Amino acid sequence: MKFYISSLLFLISCCDCIAQLDTLFLDKKLIETKKETADYYRLKTPSISDPEMTMVEDYYMGGQLRMSGSFMLPKGNIKHGWFVYYFQNGKKSSEGNFEKGQRVGNWTYWHKNGVKKETRFFETPEPGKELSQSQKVIQLWDSTGLQLVTNGTGDYQSSVEDEEYTIEGRLVNSDRDGEWFGRYENDSLFFREKYQQGVLISGVSYDSIGTEYHYKELVIQPEPSEGLPKFYSYISKNLKYPKSARRSRVEGNVFVQFFINEEGEIVDVEVLKGIGEGCDEAAKEVISGAPHWKPAMHRGQRIKVEMILPITFKIH
Q1: Is the pLDDT of residue 31 over 80?
Q2: Average pLDDT of the chain to the nearest whole number
Q3: How many separate helices (H) and strands (E) can be counted in the chain?
Q4: Domains of the chain
Q5: What pLDDT score was predicted for residue 4?
Q6: Which of the ends of the chain has fewer CB neighbours closer than 10 A, N or C?
Q7: Using CA atoms, how far apart are residues 161 and 299, in angstroms rounded to an integer?
Q8: How far is CA 104 from CA 62, 83, 175, in A?
Q9: How many CB atoms are closer than 10 A to CB 233?
Q10: What is the CB neighbour count within 10 angstroms for residue 243?
């Protein structure tokens, strides 16, 4: 799902420049996998002009370029800078700017036949808003070049990027108005929502077996079950400062990536940026043992989301 989760955990950008070409194999959801089951492969090289950036190119397994851009934190997925995406036929699909993982400013999209599809302006997303609510559709054309939305007003119908459904409804001055629908490729209903001047009034979504989920917020953030203060208190009380690190006076931040799954469990814990001397292992251990969270919700359904947290080691 493409939407914005506002987290009270801080994303800090710092990295060492890698010295060699790094290749990863990815599935359709851009999750690392084996070469035999991959849909794409990723090449990462250090930026010559900026040591805090990594240049990234994704390719279809047939060798066609899918994406080019630059990432912060070489082991993470924080997009930053100008990105260009391509269809497998070699034609451009979209281009625009990312700022710390979020689309910003003007973006342009194309149909697979090379006809311009739409132009959007991305604002800074607000807490609880899906990315589609934090952007303004300016113009929209169908694959024949017929204009459907002009200066933010018209009947919108388009597939959702990287997802298997289409979305349709009325736009007035770039705001959703009236009833909006999401439909899967087989035309079954994914969601039905009612808007008034861009504000969601009510919605209902459906899972793969037709269960209904009613909601009045598109996105609910994940949060520790006992609240953030107690979560940070747990970290403070249970974080072990390795003796060797103290002796060597090693200090700094260890950046830990983890996921909150649909059950609120902390899973897939990984150190993105470490400081060594046992601190990386200590930071990973304290996060892995943290209490459960309340899971994130998207259109009334639980979802898995990524978090990044700096764990600070400082000798007092």
Answers
A1: no
A2: 86
A3: 3, 25
A4: 15-114 (no CATH), 116-218 (no CATH), 223-313 (3.30.1150)
A5: 34
A6: C
A7: 17
A8: 31, 11, 18
A9: 12
A10: 10
Q: pLDDT digit string (tens) for 170-216? A: 999 999 999 999 998 888 889 999 999 999 999 999 998 889 999 99
Question: What letter represents residue 170's amino acid?
Answer: R
Gyration radius from the chain CA atoms:
21
Determine contact, residues 245/210, Cβ cutoff 8 Å. no
pTM tops 0.85: no
> Cα(161)–Cα(146) distance, rounded to whole angstroms?
20
pLDDT for 20 beyond 70: no
If one counts every other C-beta atom within 10 angstroms of the C-beta of residue 37, the result is: 9
- Mean pLDDT for 301-315 is 91
**pLDDT, tens digit (0-9, with 9 covering 90-100), for 269-282:** 999 889 999 999 99
In terms of Cβ atoms closer than 10 Å to its own Cβ (0-12, 13-18, 19+), residue 263 is: exposed
**Considering only CA atoms, which of 184, 135, 176 is closest in space to residue 155?**
176
How many CB atoms neighbour CB 83 within 10 A? Answer: 19
- CA-closest candidate to residue 137, choices 179, 92, 167: 167
C-alpha separations of 13 from 31, 51, 77, 92, 245 in Å: 21, 12, 11, 29, 23
Q: Residue 11 pLDDT > 80, yes or no?
A: no
Task: Kindly give the residue spans of alpha helices, DSSP state H, lying in the chain.
Answer: 228-238, 243-247, 279-288
Q: How far from 167 is each of 91, 126, 193, CA to CA, in Å?
A: 23, 21, 11
Residue type for position 302:
R
